[in-house]
Amino acid sequence: MARSVTLQKKLTFTALAWAVAFLLFFPIFWTILTSFKPEAQAIASPPVIIPSWTLENYVEVQARSDYFRHFANSVWISVGSTLIALLIAIPAAWAMAFAPTPKTKDVLMWMLSTKMMPAVGVLVPMYLLFHDFGLLDTVWGLTMVLTLINLPIVIWMLYTYFKEIPVDILEAARMDGAVLWKELVYVLVPMAVPGIASTLLLNIILAWNEAFWTINLTASKAAPLTAFISSFSSPQGLFWAKLSAASTLAIAPILVLGWLSQRQLVRGLTFGAVK
Amino acid sequence: MATQQSRTLARFMMAPSVIVLLTWMIVPLALTLWFSFQNYNLLNPGMQSFAGLFNYEYFLTDPAFIQSIGNTLLLVGGVLVITVVGGIFLALLLDQPIFGQGIVRILVISPFFIMPPVAALIWKNMLMHPGYGIFARIAETFGQRPVDWFAQFPLFSIILIVAWQWLPFATLILLTALQSLSEEQKEAAEMDGANALSRFIYIILPHLARAITVVILIQTIFLLGIFAEVLVTTNGGPGYNSTNLAFLVYRTALLSFDVGGASAGGVIAVILANIVAIFLMRAVGKNLDA
Questions:
Q1: B129-161 pLDDT per residue, tens
Q2: Which domains does chain B have, with CATH numbers?
Q3: Residue at A41 is within a domain
Q4: Whole-model pTM?
């Protein structure tokens, strides 16, 4: 008896959970479907559910707007800024995790506080500096800014991961006479790789989706997908299916990365405050 | 424990991060402050002069400023209410034993990974468009006139879109916190005859308090700066009905080229964000040594 009651309960909750999940996912699902419809089908009433699986929208988006250039910009900017941030952050996080001083906590909090500065607060000087140094609409300029805005998160994530590596192991290696670089290469790096990998993944996602600086500091040449998609805001003619195709291409890669890294997401975004 | 040598090394390893962040914190902010006291319009580049508090006076007495502060608060508050309340319910639901939990989890978290302009355009065109959107189709099915969302309820529409993006974040964090609640505690309460509601109020909610605080604070930091969603849907309109502070500063700077006025707005935005930040830092800092 008891078993059938729990099964019934489980089925009810399952139905409810799937219904909610479908509702939340629906806008994405619908966009992907629409991207495979001809324009007339995309706006048909009643809505056409099964598309005719045409690829013409994808071809057209690329032909009209050189989509892959924007895609390449997004890849360069998000991967580039994340790698540079890691390069700067790994030594700092290592030092703070393994050689903490009484000031370490304050330094960490201060680093986090730089993340709290609203972007609009410094929009004007950044725009003028970029203008004066010829950095407007360049991939390098944008990579630099995204490195800066994500650096505190990178340091924090790495710190929370490094903190969990047992110090005893390092002590043991030291006892065995390992010098610092050996300690790093043979002991620490293998244990730190998973943490570094999830930091890398999460920050690529954050940089890919960043939509304030990427829109305000680029025009066309260096525009990543965020800026490119924003240019679709004033529709001309029939464009539902093409917008869907462009959107699908812009979100697909990061959606997959997101699914892969969702377990680490909570920890990365709450700075270890929720575990 | 730490030798003098290792301490020097640690300092050396931290130097790049500290220098980079220090520069990033000080230089642009100092420039914003400087510009906020200047008469400086990019349309008259030669005419830069000291303005005293004029820019602040101008910005603070601009009716658009009052409206944008109101809109910013409504936007942040509205999204917080929807995501926290919705997030608690969703987290409780996903914490139950269900079939296909992994897939449900992936579907629910997905909106969080959608870049803001895409999210806004999907909602604007595919769902909320008065002529071709799904919502209009549903209204027609029931014989209702379709709602022209962005003309009639511009701010509410943006709140819906942003809430859709952040509900997964709240859900995931609350679910994580919920899963750390010990089974014994729940079972003990159940054995003591506590019903579902009192279990929720006296055990689950207090346990979630910390996670809820973190959700509220982190989201507030991001929500104060909502920009792309406004840009691609309403462009702040009609009038200033959906202009928030971030968008007003953008408008003053890059559309009116008023460097001084926009900088004053930027300083005000920094002050607002700092008030929130102080609370967030306390919440995070408490946990640092735990």
A1: 887 788 888 888 888 888 888 888 999 999 999
A2: 55-286 (1.10.3720.10)
A3: no
A4: 0.87
Q: For residue B59, which residues of chain A lie inside 8 Å, CB to CB?
A: none
Residue A203 Cα, gap to closest chain B Cα (Å):
12
Judge: A229–B270 Cβ closer than 8 Å, yes or no.
no
Chain B nearest CA to A97, separation (Å): 10
Within-domain flag for A96: yes
C-beta atoms of B281 and A16 within 8 A: no
ipTM of the complex: 0.86
Task: Give how many domains chain A has, as a whole number.
Answer: 1
Question: Are the Cβ atoms of B17 and A121 closer than 8 angstroms?
Answer: no
Interface test with B, best of A153, A274, A275 (most B CBs within 10 A): A274
Three-state DSSP string of chain A: CHHHHHHHHHHHHHHHHHHHHHHHHHHHHHHHHHCCCCHHHHCCCCCCCCCCCCCHHHHHHHHHHCHHHHHHHHHHHHHHHHHHHHHHHHHHHHHHHHCCCCCHHHHHHHHHHHHCCCHHHHHHHHHHHHHHCCCCCCHHHHHHHHHHHHHHHHHHHHHHHHHCCCHHHHHHHHHCCCCHHHHHHHHHHHHHHHHHHHHHHHHHHHHHHCCCHHHHCCCCCCCCHHHHHHHHHCCCCCCHHHHHHHHHHHHHHHHHHHHHHHHHHHHHHCCCCCC
